[in-house]
Design goal:
Helices cover 72% and strands 0% of the residues of chain A. By secondary structure, chain A is mainly alpha-helical. The longest helix of chain A has 32 residues. Chain B has 13 helices and no strands. Classes of the chains: A mainly alpha, B mainly alpha. The interface between A and B is large, with 99 and 95 residues.
Chain lengths: 268, 289
């Protein structure tokens, strides 16, 4: 059915799309190249190749400390989001009630609010109730924005499952907990995995919230990178970004394997 | 538990399994009520209370809505977001069209190239723009050393244009994905009918395809506008002399330390975000109907 004739508009469109991806990839690729520079400053093209800036990351203490905080917060917020989110999905994804729809909209609404506002407001509120600037505070604030990602993917997967599996198990005498553990959980595991990955990456890359909870013990990697960039402009940030990109690409491939990239483009 | 002892499988499926108790929602709902709604309510209170006397005041909102200094900031915030949205739409629509109609077996690659940048850190992308346009960056190198057009490298990094380009770079994939999801649902027979009835390609696009994809344009535009409105990392690092609300909140927190004013500014951002969310829900509801 596909017509193979390539008319002028088609060629123009193809050229436009190629230019578009040059625009999309150029700022990312130059950072990858600069991270392998042998120069002591940021310049493009680079004068020579070296991996010294990757070594520099591991020498600069604040980067490593912040990396550990970032990983801890991202894992913590993701686990907490799953514990809170999965039960809610079990009810909301199957309910056709109007109010259930409204509740879901509410639970997803942190995604639509400016993060800088959530960060600023949370700092004052958590300080007022005595949690203040601490790891706990950071964890709570991150969970607010991670929870919607888990909810959306898990509810999406669960809503698409037929009820018959769970009903069959229940009719055959499985207790509600057994139904959940042996039937529902294995079926929604792809959704949980994908939601957890989105949640992890969201937390790991978050700056507008983490910024307000910055202290020596609670600085996350993006916060340290921002303050580093505000004072210095050297290739170590490029090396760090390149490592992060590697992590993200691996994550994307994992998501594709267990969830399917094309399913992310279908609006939920 | 009684449901499970019923000997006959229920015909109507409205009866919930016992596992599906309403209380399952409680942990998530209570968590967000306490750590999302209350902080925002607290923030609203702070914006109405005078710090020195503790009395109710509207002074901050009066200043925001009448003082030319603040009006300019709000104008720049909305204008910047609107500009980024329009540019993202103009650039994004052809890409979405290509992805749905022309990419064929390349569509997986196109989607990968669209999503991969979404997963890179905001710092990396901003840094990338700095590298491209720095004194010793790619563009200056081309202009001075390769082409010999200039004697001295230009100071390019601190410009409005590059700030806008960087924001479009971050947000245009969201626009493409929103439009793609609607274009995929358009019945191609409608376009074929138009062409059979004598419309040329341009007219078919203008009178059939484009009107049918308005929902995707709306969804994408609101999403991009909403995120552009709250973004500040790009503005902090690339500058360009733009003064927007998120940047002012950041500065109020850092240097001026006028927290009441920052709260009032947050509330304005929040109201804009809620308006966007409301519009978004209206589109989703119309699509569902």
């Amino acid at each position: 059915m596909r017509r193979n004739q390539s008319s002028l508009p088609d060629v123009a469109l193809l050229a436009f799309v190629v230019l578009f991806f040059v625009f999309m990839l150029a700022p990312i690729l130059v950072v990858v190249v600069v991270s392998f520079t042998s120069a002591g400053f940021v310049a493009f093209p680079i004068p020579g190749w070296s991996t010294k800036w990757f070594a520099r990351i591991f020498e600069y203490r604040p980067f490593i400390d912040a990396l550990i905080v970032s990983i801890e917060v991202a894992i913590g917020a993701t686990l907490l989001s799953c514990l809170l989110g999965v039960p809610a999905c079990l009810y909301l994804a199957r309910s056709r009630a109007k109010w259930a729809n409204a509740v879901m909209t509410f639970l997803l609404s942190p995604l639509s609010m400016p993060m800088i506002v959530i960060g600023f407001a949370s700092l004052f509120f958590l300080s007022a109730i005595g949690i203040g600037v601490s790891f706990t505070a950071l964890l709570i604030a991150h969970t607010v924005v991670c929870l919607p990602y888990v909810l959306r993917t898990v509810a999406g997967v669960y809503a698409g499952l037929p009820r018959s599996y769970e009903e069959a198990a229940a009719i055959l005498g499985a207790s509600p907990l057994a139904v959940f553990w042996h039937v529902t959980l294995p079926l929604i595991r792809p959704g949980i995995m994908a939601g957890s990955l989105f949640s992890f990456l969201t937390s790991f890359d978050n700056l507008p919230i983490s910024y307000f909870f910055g202290s020596a013990d609670t600085n996350t990697l993006p916060v340290v990178m921002l303050s580093y960039l505000e004072h210095q402009f050297d290739p170590s940030v490029a090396a760090l970004s390149t490592l992060q990109l590697l992590l993200a690409v691996i994550a994307l491939i994992v998501v594709d394997r267990i969830y399917g990239i094309d399913r992310m483009t279908v609006s939920s | 538990m009684t449901e499970f002892t019923l000997p006959i499988a229920p015909r109507r499926r409205a009866r919930p399994l016992a596992m599906r108790s309403v209380y399952l929602i409680a942990p998530a709902a209570l968590f967000l009520l306490f750590f999302f709604v209350l902080p925002l309510a607290d923030n609203a209170m702070r914006s109405f209370v005078d710090e020195a006397t503790g009395a109710f005041t509207l002074a901050r909102y009066a200043a925001l809505l009448t003082d030319p200094f603040y009006l300019r900031i709000m104008g720049e915030t909305v204008l910047l977001s609107a500009g980024v949205t329009v540019i993202s739409l103009i650039i994004g629509y052809p890409v979405a069209y290509f992805l749905v109609r022309k990419a064929g077996r390349w569509s997986a690659l196109v989607i990968f190239l669209l999503i991969a940048p979404l997963l890179t850190s905001i710092i990396m992308r901003t840094f990338g723009w700095q590298v491209l346009f720095a004194r010793k960056g790619l563009v200056n190198n081309l202009l001075v050393n390769q082409l010999g057009l200039l004697e001295q490298p230009l100071r390019l990094t601190n410009s409005v244009e590059i700030t806008i380009a960087a924001l479009v770079h971050v947000l245009v994939p969201l626009m493409v994905l929103s439009i793609t999801s609607v274009l995929q649902g358009i019945d191609r027979r409608l376009e074929e009918s138009a062409q059979i009835l004598g419309a040329n390609r341009l007219r078919t696009f203008w009178e059939v395809t484009l009107p049918l994809s308005l929902d995707g344009i709306g969804t994408g535009a609101i999403l991009v506008f909403m995120i552009a409105n709250g973004s500040f990392v790009t503005l902090v690092l690339l500058g360009g002399g733009l003064q927007t609300l998120p940047l002012m909140i950041y500065q109020q927190f850092n240097t001026t330390r006028d927290f009441g004013m920052a709260s009032a500014m947050s509330m304005i951002l929040l109201v804009i975000a809620i308006a966007c969310l409301w519009l978004q829900l209206r589109i989703v509801r119309r699509r569902g109907a």
